[in-house]
Design a protein that fits this description.
134 residues; alpha+beta; PH-domain like; 3 helices
């Protein structure tokens, strides 16, 4: 399933894919601000999990909360990429809404991570590698 600092049952995958995802680049993202709180972080694949390292800070500097959320591919309905003029979005739709409660901010039915367009190639690689896991 998913959880904070938690890895539950492993994912059966090809060893070479596991080695590839273990060393995959981390991609910076932002989420919409909630009041004076800025939410940013990193997304990457590690050992068959989609990992979100989320930092929630007051005005970007104070009262910093950091969380690591590891998500099994089976816990997600889909992971897609939407392209934009300046920023692309990684759209994550979980099978259960409880996953959205783990991530700071307001989310309706999907989690949309905003990524700068310059990281488009890395984001495409991440989506492709994630699809290979499912």
């Amino acid at each position: 399933m998913f959880g904070r600092f938690k890895t539950t049952c492993g994912v059966g995958s090809v060893t070479s894919l596991a080695l590839y995802t273990r060393n995959m680049n981390r991609i910076k993202f932002t989420l919409p601000e909630v009041g004076l709180r800025e939410i940013s972080g990193l997304v990457y694949l590690e050992d068959g999990f989609l990992v979100l390292k989320v930092e929630d800070a007051l005005m970007g500097e104070f009262d910093v909360d950091e969380e690591i959320i590891k998500i099994e591919p089976q816990a997600l309905e889909y992971v897609r990429m939407r392209t934009g003029l300046l920023r692309d979005r990684l759209v994550i739709k979980p099978k259960r809404a409880t996953l959205l409660d783990l991530v700071p901010g307001k989310h309706e039915s999907t989690l949309e991570l905003r990524v700068w367009r310059t990281k488009r190639e890395k984001l495409e690689d991440l989506v492709e590698a994630f699809r290979a896991l499912t």
